[in-house]
């Protein structure tokens, strides 16, 4: 058995991908909705995976006896994949900042996503102008399109203008 290539490890790129996700996104369990990056072309596109398991907390009430992943969480998974594409495209300005989604347009939910499905998230960078990013997102299960949308986001400093419960509404 040969030694891993420089910059990799015994598990290959899968573990590296998990750490990359955690380095770029501020989200953590139970709201981290991207499990793995499988392909990235900085400035163009990113493909990521979300493994949908019966243990997801949202299945408890959506819907009892007939679990379906809420569409808004499919969109959130797309948004997180878009933030990853932004981070891989411009790590200097994105990774030290937060990516806030501003709009989601032209949403189409085509099929339900259920426990056991593997959601393949494909994000394409449509346009970037300074701190504003526009993405086309598509989500697939078993090669079938389940959701599509266009998303717009902006990057902002992590420290600036943060709203916390202690300062919210204070004057």
Topology:
Blueprint: H1 13-24, E1 36-41, E2 45-51, H2 71-89, H3 91-94, E3 97-109, E4 118-129, E5 132-141, E6 144-157
Antiparallel strand pairs: 1-2, 2-4, 3-6, 4-5, 5-6
Please, could you describe this protein's structure?
With 171 residues, the chain is an alpha+beta fold. The protein has one domain (22-157): Hotdog Thioesterase (Thiol Ester Dehydrase, Chain A), CATH 3.10.129. The protein contains 3 helices and 6 strands. The chain has helices at residues 13-24, 71-89, 91-94; strands at 36-41, 45-51, 97-109, 118-129, 132-141, 144-157. The protein has a 6-stranded antiparallel β-sheet with strand order 1-2-4-5-6-3. A hairpin with a 3-residue loop joins strand 1 and strand 2. It starts with 12 loop residues before the first helix and ends in a 14-residue tail after the last strand.
Q: Keywords for this structure?
A:
171 residues; alpha+beta; Thiol Ester Dehydrase, Chain A; 6-stranded antiparallel β-sheet; disordered C terminus
Taken together, the total number of domains comes to 1
Helix share, percent: 10-25%
In round numbers, the mean pLDDT is 87
What is the C-alpha radius of gyration, as a whole number of Å? 17 Å
How many beta-strand runs?
6
Assign the structural class, choosing from mainly alpha, mainly beta, alpha/beta, alpha+beta, or little secondary structure: alpha+beta
Beta-strand percent range:
35-45%
Number of helices: 3
Instruction: Output the helix-strand order.
Output: HEEHHEEEE
CATH arch. level architecture:
Roll
The geometry reads as globular
End-to-end separation in angstroms reads: 65 Å
> What order do the strands of the largest sheet run in, or round the barrel if closed?
1-2-4-5-6-3
């Amino acid at each position: 058995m040969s030694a891993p290539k420089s910059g990799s490890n015994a598990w290959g790129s899968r573990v590296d991908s998990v750490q990359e996700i955690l380095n770029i996104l501020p989200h953590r369990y139970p709201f981290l909705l991207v499990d793995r990056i499988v392909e990235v072309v900085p400035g163009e596109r990113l493909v990521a995976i979300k493994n949908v398991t019966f243990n997801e907390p949202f299945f408890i009430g959506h819907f009892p006896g007939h679990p379906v992943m809420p569409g808004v969480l499919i969109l959130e998974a797309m948004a997180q994949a878009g933030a990853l594409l932004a981070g891989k495209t411009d790590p200097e300005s994105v990774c030290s900042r937060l990516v806030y989604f501003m709009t989601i347009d032209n949403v189409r939910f085509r099929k339900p996503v259920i426990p056991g499905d593997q959601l393949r998230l494909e994000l394409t960078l449509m346009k970037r102008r300074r701190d504003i990013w526009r993405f086309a997102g598509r989500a697939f299960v078993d090669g079938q399109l389940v959701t599509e949308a266009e998303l717009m986001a902006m990057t902002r400093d992590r420290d600036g203008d943060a709203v916390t419960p202690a300062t919210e509404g204070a004057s």
